[in-house]
Design goal:
FMN binding, binds iron/sulfur cluster, 4 iron, 4 sulfur cluster binding, 774 residues, globular, binds flavin mononucleotide, 24 helices, TIM Barrel, alpha/beta, metal-binding, 5-stranded parallel beta sheet, 2 domains
Length: 774
């Protein structure tokens, strides 16, 4: 009881105390707070934070975006995006005096921790040197060199004395396309016993590759105000060797080994100038072997020095007084100025009055600059300039390049149909006659580097649209003209049938699938509207990497999404995507397809590659079908293109599945879909192109498959302006000869064997590639 009374007395006593001493309490509190505030102010001076957060996936900005220009002002104007959605662009309202939109360079002092670590010599016995070799490769040259380099270093290690060899662990090789940058390039891997030496073997590409993403990462890491400007200063050192081609890029000014030079500069910054050995460069056509050998010897010497406690040598910490800081900063600033953001953010350029030539402004979402210089609109490059090697390579392969980023080519099936020798599988399944079909793309660029791609590694790749945008009218007229020109060239070819030749002079179908990624083009909806206006149907294939464009896509006659694998690792291996969030993008595309299944005629296209995406993946594919619920699933075998690119990706004829294997896979997939009660069945086949069609039961009417399309009905639906879906333009019954089990060869056409072998019935499970060739 007593203690309870005491408790109730307390507040009263406290109140009395307060009344007696409140003046001195208040004064003491004020003095304490002022001292604390001053101490904090001088101890941690404030950095200016950026106005806008770092953009994550660019699609977050697809519909609306704004740019931090000034603390008080956020100037935005409208810009038309896909589907006429309005976004925000700074271009039209930009006053002359506007602050420079280039990223702010956050200059930081090297922290005490970093400096200490920088000077700390390698202590043999306590730690071991761990050489890590990072490489990137599209064509395979650098990958082969990287693997050889690592085995060279490791066998050198074996020949050292036991004590010396014990000072370092085996060298490891990492492909920059596969690793998480954060694991190596924000801080070194955490292993107390290891001290890392970062080595790089890099090619240079003047098209977008994974190296651009890597360089951006290095820049961002250095400029991130939240971390030390030299966060990798704890590593022992680094060195870069670049491969380039002096035939087309003869000097450094003209771009010889430019990306290796860039990586060298940024590594100097984020390691606090720890260049262990100077940048090496080799011309793949002449001296790269000798240069690489010299560089390798240099690396070995540097490692020996490190292990014997000599560190990285005289001069500036490790770098041997190379061109550093200020000069490199200035260069980098120049580079960032010309970088453009994602097409998903930028939308169009020519329609907003800035003209195709002027294009969107370079904008950085992360930071702002103090500079009061006026904005210089960057000159946008052409995706495939006529002078580029890409142009030469593509035209050599038979493409007609239209404008600066579109292409058209007549496919072998069009030629075949002109000669009365059969159409592609799209005739069997959907009633498209190949000689009436134009194959084209408004974007030669793509964001994958699929191992089975038959483009010989020559197409431009990129995650963002950084090029000049051609108007859709120009592309439309250009591709038609290119197509008709190629058809006319077939006039004198033996076997071309007069009536088919005449018919071919009126395009009725357009396959937007040639190369590249059609929905990458910012005016894809306007382009397809032009096709439809001329009553040309549209079959659009996309690679499931651009969810926002997919969501904004208007009606097309048939919408394809390439499903090249059933799980993340397999997809990474086979598509070699440039987007780091490729799996998330892929997943979102499937969800979008599911939402659109009553508006668009959706198709999953599976391209099976033996040894890559078939084994044990049936259930995975069935899961994806359950997720996206497409109207159709087309399953086809890969076609081997026999290029060095495909060979270096480990692809050979043995990866091409036999038709019997495709059939087996389809039967298993169908069983799995049935087990899940999803309502699909095997509808049709075209054994000749190794292709089978699974269809949703929505396309089975009165027990008969109706996979064909009523094209006229499709155009009528479009013209009506009413909402409509795939069920509104279902065409005729699938012909008997195209049904599953019947082979799918049009009986009107002639079967020809180039080598004069006897004609064989197709669809019997015999290997397709051993059968008829036309
Ligand atoms: C499309 C393309 C663009 C290239 N751009 C450059 C360049 O700008 N500068 C350069 O020095 N080499 C350039 N090269 C040459 C490559 O860097 C060189 O062939 C390298 O060995 C390729 O390595 P990889 O086979 O490992 O991909 C280019 C090659 C191609 C095919
Ligand atoms: S659909 Fe493709 S393969 Fe078939 S004819 Fe048209 S372009 Fe050629």
């Amino acid at each position: 009881m007593g203690s309870i009374n005491l408790f109730w007395q307390l507040p009263g006593e406290l109140l009395e105390l307060w009344h007696e001493h409140r003046t001195s309490i208040i004064y003491s509190a004020i003095v304490f707070l002022t001292v604390a505030r001053l101490w904090l102010h001088y101890r941690y001076p404030r950095e200016k934070a950026s106005l806008s957060s770092t953009p994550g996936s660019p699609d977050l900005y697809a519909k609306k975006w704004s740019i931090g220009i000034d603390r008080e002002k956020d100037l935005t104007v409208d810009v038309p995006l896909l589907n006429g959605v309005i976004g925000k662009n700074i271009a039209a309202k930009t006053p002359k005096s506007i602050r420079k939109a280039s990223p702010k360079r956050v200059v930081g002092k090297k922290s005490a921790r970093a400096s200490k670590e920088l000077d700390k010599p390698f202590e043999a016995g306590e730690q071991r040197v761990a050489p890590l070799l990072f490489f990137s490769s599209l064509g395979g040259t650098t990958q082969a060199a990287a693997e050889a380099f690592v085995s060279n270093i490791n066998s050198w290690r074996k020949h050292l004395s036991a004590d010396e060899a014990d000072n370092f662990v085996e060298a490891k090789c990492h492909d920059l396309s596969y690793i998480e940058y954060d694991d190596f390039f924000i801080s070194a891997p955490k292993d107390q016993n290891l001290a890392y030496l970062y080595l790089f073997l890099l090619p240079t590409y003047n098209i977008d590759t994974t190296l651009d993403t890597f360089l951006e990462h290095l820049q961002e890491t250095h400029n991130d105000f939240r971390i030390d400007t030299a966060p990798l200063s704890s590593i022992l050192g680094y060195s870069v060797f670049g491969f380039g081609d002096k035939q087309d890029w003869p000097t450094e000014e003209e771009g010889f080994c430019s990306q290796a030079r860039e990586v060298d500069k940024w590594m100097a910054k984020i390691t606090g100038r720890k260049r262990a050995f100077p940048l090496g460069m080799g011309d793949v056509r002449t001296d790269s072997k000798e240069r690489l050998e010299e560089w390798t010897e240099g690396i070995k010497e540097a490692m020996s020095d490190i292990m014997s406690g000599k560190g990285l040598g005289e001069g500036v910490a490790g770098s041997g007084d190379a061109v550093e800081s200020d000069e490199e900063d200035a260069d980098a600033e120049e580079n960032t100025k010309t970088k453009l953001d994602d097409v998903e953010d930028l939308g169009s350029s020519y329609r907003n009055g800035t003209g195709a030539e002027s294009g969107p402004l370079a904008i950085d979402f992360t930071t702002y600059s103090k500079s009061t210089k006026t904005v210089e609109p960057p000159v946008l490059k052409e995706m495939v300039p006529t002078s580029s090697p890409t142009y030469t390579a593509l035209t050599k392969q038979g493409y007609t390049i239209v404008g600066s980023h579109s292409g058209v080519k007549i496919c072998r099936w069009t030629k075949s149909a002109l000669r009365g020798r059969g159409s592609c599988y799209k005739y069997s399944f959907y009633g498209i006659q190949s000689h009436l079909c134009m194959e084209t793309t408004p974007s030669l660029s793509c964001s994958n580097k699929c191992v089975f791609c038959w483009r010989h590694g020559t197409n431009p790749v990129g995650t963002t649209w950084r090029w000049k945008v051609d108007p859709p009218e120009e592309i439309f007229e250009g591709v038609k003209a290119g197509h008709y020109k190629k058809i006319k060239m077939m006039k004198g070819v033996p076997g071309v049938r007069a009536e088919r030749f005449q018919e071919a002079m009126r395009i009725k179908h357009c396959a937007l699938s040639l190369v590249g990624e059609p929905i990458f083009y910012p005016h894809i909806n306007e382009f397809t509207a032009m096709l439809h206006k001329e009553r040309i149907s549209s079959f659009l294939v996309c690679n499931a990497q651009h969810p926002d464009q997919l969501a904004a896509l208007g009606h097309v006659t048939q919408l394809y999404v390439s499903i090249d694998a059933s799980n993340k690792e397999s997809l990474r291996k086979i598509d070699r995507p440039l987007h780091r969030d490729f799996w998330e993008r892929f997943q979102r595309c499937l969800d979008i397809l599911r939402e659109k299944r009553f508006m668009q005629r959706t198709v999953f296209r599976l391209t099976l590659v033996k040894g890559f995406n078939i084994d044990d993946e049936v259930e995975g594919y069935a899961d994806l079908v359950a997720q996206g619920l497409p109207c159709f699933v087309e399953v086809k075998g890969v076609t081997f293109c026999g290029t060095s690119t495909s060979s270096s990706a480990g692809l050979s004829m043995s990866n091409v599945p036999f038709y019997s294997e495709i059939s087996e896979f389809v039967i298993a997939l169908n069983a799995s879909l049935e087990k899940r009660g999803l309502g699909y069945g095997i509808a049709a086949e075209h054994a000749h192109s190794c292709c089978v069609l699974l269809a949703s039961n929505r396309f089975k009417i009165d027990g008969k498959w109706h996979t064909r399309i009523d094209y006229e009905k499709f155009f009528e639906c479009l013209e009506s302006g009413e909402e409509f879906g795939p069920d509104d333009y279902i065409g005729d019954e699938t012909p008997e000869w195209a049904l599953w089990g019947n082979g799918g060869f049009d009986p009107r056409d002639e079967r020809v064997d180039r080598k004069g072998r006897p004609k064989v019935i197709i669809g019997d499970g015999t290997p397709q590639k051993n059968l008829i060739e036309i």
